[in-house]
Amino acid sequence: MEKKEKLNSLADLYVHELKDIYSAEKQITKALPKLAKAASSDDLKKGFQEHLKQTEGQINRLEKIFRRLGESTSGPKCKGMEGLLEEGSDFTEEPASAEVLDAGMIVAAQKVEHYEIAAYGSLCTFAKLLGYDEDLDLLKESIAEEEETDQKLTVLAESYINQAAEESSIIEESGAGRGKSRR
Ligand SMILES: [Fe+2]
After folding, report:
1. Which of 48, 131, 166, 181 is the most buried (most CB within 10 A)?
2. Tens digit of pLDDT for each residue in 72-112?
3. What residue spans define the domains of the chain?
């Protein structure tokens, strides 16, 4: 167990949640280069690389907020993000066609985005209530980027990646097959 922090007020909870998303963003910066490397679609690869730059900017915004609050950035590791990223990286190690792997990485990335959107959404609500207007502006910039990323992933999946995955599985089935050979 991590050492107990006091959570007596909404302001305490705000700091607690800031530390959670900070840990999540830090973990994401380590995962994105691996996802970019594993992606076959150039659009998806580029998407992951662009989101890495955005994530670094989001970390800078959070650090600005911590400085304003006089709080350190250190806190417990975000276990939710750890689990989501672990599922994503386990998936990239499965035997899969390149197209199915791309489709699966989009699923994993969208789960990550939705976690972040939920976190930033609550932080925006708290900052507004607490009268932390400067924080609110910064948090709104980050949530807008996460929402945009989520939408871009949907467009990529629906424009051709899911279709390519669907076609790749048909080819595998009608061809010699992989894994167990049937005789
Ligand atoms: Fe993020």
Report:
1. 48
2. 999 999 999 999 999 999 888 888 899 999 999 999 999 99
3. 10-169
Query: How close is the Cα of 31 to the center of ligand 1, in Å?
Result: 12
Q: Give the relative orientation of helices 98-130 and 79-92 as an angle to the nearest 10 degrees.
A: 170
Q: How many angstroms is it from 7 CA to the middle of ligand 1?
A: 25
- 41-63 pLDDT tens trace: 999 999 999 999 999 999 999 99
Ligand 1 centre from 181 Cα, in Å? 43
Neighbours of ion ligand 1 (CB under 5 A): 55, 58, 116
State the DSSP code for 157. Answer: I
Domain 10-169: CATH superfamily, name plus number = Ferritin, core subunit, four-helix bundle (1.20.1260.10)
The pTM is what? 0.89
Q: How far, in Å, is the centroid of ligand 1 from the Cα of 40?
A: 23
Ligand 1 centre from 151 Cα, in Å? 14
